[in-house]
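Entry 12.
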Amino acid sequence: MDAAALKTLTQELLSRLDLEADEIVVTGGHRTVVAISTKDSKRLIGPHGEHLRALNMLARRLVEQKHGEDAANFLIDANGYHEEQMERVRQNARMLAQRARLFKHDVEMSPMSPYERLVVHELFAEDPEIQTISEGEGKFRHIVLKYRSAQSTPIA
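Predicted 3D structure (tokens):
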């Protein structure tokens, strides 16, 4: 879905929720982000980001119905809230990975959303010492940071 259509959809959803946006910017990349700047961020984000998650789910479902599942690869963020949350997830994962390296032992993370798990998996995709796997079911699904001992190469 193109940037102008995403911006229009977001404006429409916000107006139906009786919320005003000061600015809406759509940026591309790995995942398209619709960044909203608003004075109503408390109402838009909600407790622990629940309203923002619901808005994202609703927007994705609307786009999927009209344009198919491939067009729904975007995220609506309000005043940088989502990016701050993802940075906290990354920092926590890095700290726990250091613990796994130090003690040479697997470390379990707290349950998290599918997107948060994706962020952690991507963070350690190229790490030679840490492997990530998802375990658990439903709302209890979490990541285990598995320590991989350094593979010694045979001497020729």
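Annotation: Residues 152-156 have pLDDT under 50 and may be disordered. The beta strands are 23-27, 32-37, 74-78, 107-108, 130-135, 142-147.
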